[in-house]
Design brief:
The chain is mainly β. The protein contains five helices and 34 strands. It is elongated.
Amino acid sequence: MNPRSLALPVLALGGAALLFAPLRSSQAFKKIGGFLDETQRDVRVVDNFSDPTAGDNTVPASQFPGYTGLQLAIWKAVVEWGSQLHGDGEGDINGNLLGSGGANFDGFWAGKTNGVGNMNANIVSTISSCSGNTLAYTETPIWTGWRIRFCENWTWDDGPGAIGSRFDIQGVMCHEYGHALGLGHSSSNAATMFPSVGAGSTGIRSIDADDIAGIKCIYGAASVTKPTIVAAVASAGTLTIYGSNFGATGNEVWFTPSAFTATSTDPIVRVTGVSSSTGGTIVSVTIPAEAGPGDVIVNGPGHGNDTISNAFPTDLVGTFGDVPGPHPDITDVTPSAIDALIPGTAQTITLSGTQLDLVTSVLLDGLDIDPARYTLVDASTITLDMPQASSLGAHTLAVTDGAVTDPYSVTIVAPTTPMLQWGTGDALNVIDKDNGLDIIVSGQVGTAHVVRGSPVGPPALNKYLRPLNMVLVDAGTYVIPAEGWLQVHLSDLPDPAVVGATWFARSFELTPPKPFPASNDQSITLVP
């Protein structure tokens, strides 16, 4: 075992002196010998911290899906050493962008485990006590892995903000992981690898120029041929990864496991033998059942530090990063105030924009609209037969090409005059008697509407205004709910052989004075 420790400031000089060797003034970092190869990139944590403040952060971070508390603090510390920003780099309360290493190295978040493991299982845990003023230490065989222990002599805090007199898990983990990567202590007091830190300090969460020089010295600067992920898009059980330098064949895609993993097992969920497309810029795989939110990495064919991509966040359901374009963009919806019911199948709503010919789905509030309801007219226009929204007020129409979804806000309003739809709402649409009839009534919220049908012609509610031979059929009286529309199913329809096949309908809003406001005309063809 080769332990490397972080000491308290009060005894930093005594504790650190034994670890220092004379260094040139231009170089303050020190190497301890060895480095982690591509088989040693996983990082796990067991939550055996006794302090409540070590795991009480419940605020999620956008680029770290699925984790809060202790696990989130450890994960943030690891990605700071990565070759480039982790997603968009956001997530540190100090405003630092996470992912500053710039070397041919990327750690991989492998989630939670159920034990402390041996000294090369790549697990973070606590130990009940440590001698002297040691805060934490790293057991570093290096070549075959590591183990990091936090000393329970001290009170720990998972952040992300001010931590008072406690010690910062994220910062201390960032330091200790530097040891696991092969770095010793630095003589630069600005460096994360400086051998001491004060209680309440969060300053060593972000690595300094000297730390960056050290990791590049060990692993080399990030190669221009290194696989790079710029976006990860999950949809319908498939993860599509966008980037560059993916192998034509023979790639491995790594996922964070969804469940606890045993200390003695490889925790990485791997999909092997994956090919890329579009000149090594796209990799697409079925998401394994064992995978969970966390990181994804593409490990290209061959061996070496420069075959492993940057670690990139994914929640396995949405989009992270910026998918290379072009992509559909809605610039206008006409009208922007849309009636709660527009009878018939005419496509009366127009979506204007750019690249709309790339659209694969149109959505209302995140749900796919039936493709029969819209037409991709050209790159700048989509016409739409608007479906019923769940409520009045603000809603979101969106378009997607399967990679990027572009939203546009619209407002659903109650129609100023009664609206009625029988069946599809188109003139003389065919209704099977045995299947019944769906009708939709719409109007101002709280108003009462009567619906009348006739086999002779459009009905008039006032008996003195309708022809003497007109038969009126009562299709019900309805009060418009808060949604601005109400759908009703009518069964037990009459036999068209007896009453005739053609039927006409109107609804009437029972709001004085007479004559009551009448809806649009509707007609159906009733068949046996």
